[in-house]
Amino acid sequence: MKIRKHKKLIHEGNYIAEIEVEYIYSDTEWSPYLSLQDAFKLDDVREALRQGDIETAATLARIYTLTPVAV
Asked: pTM for the complete prediction?
């Protein structure tokens, strides 16, 4: 079994969250997969962004604001 760090991006509203997770590689058909803890972390960040709770989301991930570009 191998573990490799990866950054996941979640887009919600005007925000992007960059979350570091670990992919677990094994000899099973489900490989690669996330640990249960990392999956819950992704869900927690997504829910915090939906509710507008940027402080909570920022404790678990890096948060970026999207700004529209006028052409």
From this structure: 0.85
The neighbour count for residue 29, using CB atoms within 10 Å, is 5
Q: Which long-range contacts (CB under 8 A, 24 or more apart) does 6-12 make?
A: 8/42, 10/42, 10/45, 10/46, 10/49, 10/61, 11/66, 12/46, 12/49, 12/50
| Domain span at 26 | 2-65
Residues of the chain short of pLDDT 50, as ranges, are none
The count of structural domains within the chain is: 1
User: Is the previous residue joined to 68 through a cis bond, with omega within 30 degrees of 0?
Assistant: no
Q: Tokens standing for 65? A: 């604001």
